[in-house]
Structures are given as structure tokens and as C-alpha cells.
Amino acid sequence: MLPLLAVVVLLAGGAGLGTTAAAKAVHLLCFATSWGVTVWAILVGGVIMFLYYTFSPCSFNVLPPNLPRHAMGRLRGKVFPACFALNAACTAASAEAFAWLHRPPWPPAERRQLAVLLVAAGYDLANLLIFTPRTLEAMRERHKVERSLGIGGDGSFVGWRQNARAARSSSTLAAENARFWVAHSFSAVALVISAAGLFSHFCCLSGKIVI
């Protein structure tokens, strides 16, 4: 809905006060959505999925992790593609609104910010269409090998140790591990670049706020 709203606003006509205010609202709302999804759904959410603990309702004792590695992988496989799709659309809409608000010729500062937003949207799109599908495919193949070896049903830390031990004697698992980490590394680098671009624009906007 947000990208569609951006297109409607920017095609609405000239730079009247109402249209300008709406474009500013679209820019801020779409950017805030992308930044929030990156921080909370992907970064913080990814850590929570990995470090999932159950708290006893009768005490504050922390029990062992109860989210198996394979379940965590399937959950991430549903959440992350949706996040990257939303991020790519919202960041592109934010860049479109920013370009509309700052008509060419753009000063160097505006050109840099527009480039930052476009790069962030591009890397999110690359993550959605290229890196994440390859990572998920490698993850599923690794899960198949782990299930055949009777591992993968425990929590993250225990599962990692089981995987490392099994990979010493299973060349198939070792090969799938290497394939997964190569794909995952590309996805992680793309995420970091996108997050850095959004953070740069966040700092730029923060510097313009007068409190």
C-alpha cells in the first residue's frame, strides 16, 4: 500500500502545497517502514529467533532453548523474504518521493542521499531475488543431510555443535555447510550495505530536525 500511495501522490500533479506535504509524508513513512523492518524484524528479530528461550511462568528461571534449528530456519525462510520485499518497495518509494521533492538539478548532498536510498533498495531487491533464494535452497539441502544423520532437532547452540561434529565425518554435510555459508555471506553483506544506507539517510534526516 505504501509504494502504491507514493505513486499516486507523485503522479497527482504539480508541486502544490498539498501534494508537497503528501510527498513528504510518503517519503518519511516509507523510509521509517524500511528502517523499522531492518532494525526490528531482520536484525533484532533474527537474533531473537536464534536465541529463543522459554521463561517459566512460575519463576524467572531460563529454560534451555526450545526452538529447533530446523524450525528456526523455516521461520526465517518465511519472514526474511517478506521483509526484503517490503524494504525494497518502501525504500524505492521513499527514493522516488525524495527525488520528486528535490527537483533536478540536485545539489551534491541531495544526490548522495538519493544514491544512498537507491543503493539500499537495490541491495534489498538483490537479497530478495538472488541471495536469499540461494541461501534458503542451501539451507534446505543442509537440513535434509542433517535429518539423515539424526541431528538438527535441538536448539541453536547445541545444533551447531552437533553439526560441527558430524561434518568431521560426513563430507556431504561439510560440502552443504560450505555452500550454505557462501550463500549466507552474500545475503548478510547485502543486508549490511542496505542497513548502512538507511542509517546514513536516518542521520541526514536527524540532522535537519530542529527541536
Question: Could you explain the architecture of this structure?
Answer:
- With 211 residues, the protein is an all-alpha fold.
- It has one domain.
- It contains six helices and no strands.
- α1 runs parallel beside α3 and α4 runs antiparallel to α6.
- The radius of gyration is 21 Å and the shape is elongated.
- About 3% of the residues have low confidence.
Key phrases:
transmembrane helix; mainly alpha; Xanthocillin_Biosynth-Assoc; TMEM205-like; TMEM205-like domain-containing protein; transmembrane
Query: Whole-Å distance between the termini?
Result: 31 Å
Overall mean pLDDT = 85
Number of domains: 1
- What are the secondary-structure elements, in order, as H or E? HHHHHH
Total E-strand runs: 0
Which residues sit in consecutive blocks of at least 5 with pLDDT less than 50? 54-60
The coarse overall form would be elongated
Instruction: Output the structural class.
Output: mainly alpha
Topology:
Elements: H1 2-10, H2 17-50, H3 69-101, H4 108-148, H5 156-169, H6 171-208
Helix pairs in contact: 1-2, 1-3, 2-3, 2-6, 3-4, 4-6, 5-6
Short description:
The chain is built from six helices and no strands. It has helices at residues 2-10, 17-50, 69-101, 108-148, 156-169, 171-208. The longest helix has 41 residues, at 108-148.
